[in-house]
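quick one before i forget lol
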Amino acid sequence: MKIQKKCGIAAIALGIISLLGQPILAQNSAAPTFNSVKRSHNNRLEQLSKQLDLTEAQQSKIKGFMAEHHSKAAHIRKDTALTPEQQKEKLKIIRKDLMLEIKGVLTDEQVAKFKSLHHHTAK
């Protein structure tokens, strides 16, 4: 049972990472503008909303989670006191936190659908 739960959480995390896209993972890209980041978050949220049939309340919470994640990630990337390895580790931790926050607002049915969607895209 624990293995299934861990596999489920891992599948959700990987799926959300793929939905959130490369700009969050990319560290060497040019700094995005505020408007481009806002559009990118909105596009990702819209895609996630359609796939999982999110409620307005869920969309609002996830949008806040994504904005907070982006702010934390930007702060980490700007911290010149951190080595690239330290930055990578800190970014990994905040991505994990984001996945847990998003998972926390999904219903069991949405989690199951998300796993299914991720399984099809991983093939």
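fyi Residues 57 and 115 are 21 Å apart (CA to CA).
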